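Lab notebook, bench 4. Still working through the backlog of constructs that have no structural model yet. Next entry is a single chain of 193 residues. Request: give me the C-alpha cells for it.
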Amino acid sequence: MSTLTAVVPAQAAPRLGQYTVIDVRTPGEYAAGHVPGAHNIPLDHLQTALPTLKAAATRGDLLMVCASGNRSTTACTELAAAGIPATTLTGGTTAWADQGHALHHPEGAATTWAMERQVRLAAGSLVVLGLAAGARYRPARWLSAAIGAGLVFSAATNTCGMAAVLAKLPHNQPRTTDLNATLDALQQQSDQA
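Model written out:
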C-alpha cells in the first residue's frame, strides 16, 4: 500500500511540470478554473481510471487536486489502496488561487459554481424556506432544524451528503466522452514517456 503525501501550493508550483495533475472535481467546477495542465477525472469515476492512472504514476508523480483538499485526499486514499502513489494539494484550487497562482479557464466552457457554493445555496435556501413556511405551518420549521443538524453532522464526519446529491444534478455530471478523452490524453503521455 502506498503512503499518502500532501504538498502546499508553494511546494507544488515550482514542480508543476513534473506532476501529472488530476482534478477530481465535477466537470463544471473544473471548467470554472483549474490548476494549469490538470486533467479532469471526477472522483466518482476514479475507479474507471485506475489502469490509466497506474500507468501515469510509473512515469512521474500524480498530484490530486479538488476545491479544498477533501476530495483529493479521498482520491489519494483510493489510489493508495490500489497501490498507486499520489500526492494531494493541500487547500486545493482555493489555496492555489489565494496564494497568487493562476488558474486555467478553458475558452467557451460553461462554468458551474463550486460544489461548496452549491451546498451553501441549497442549505441556506432550505433553511429560509423552512423558517418562512414555519410562520404559517409550525412543523415546517423542522426542515430548518434538519438542515442545521445535517450541516453539523457533515462537519463532524468530514462528509457531505448534500454535495453527493448535488453532484448527481445534470450540470455537475461528467460526459463519458470527456472522461474518455482525458484517459486517452493520459495514455498518450504514458506512451510518449
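Notes after review: Residues 43 and 75 are 7 Å apart (CA to CA). The chain has a mean pLDDT of 88. Flag for follow-up if needed.
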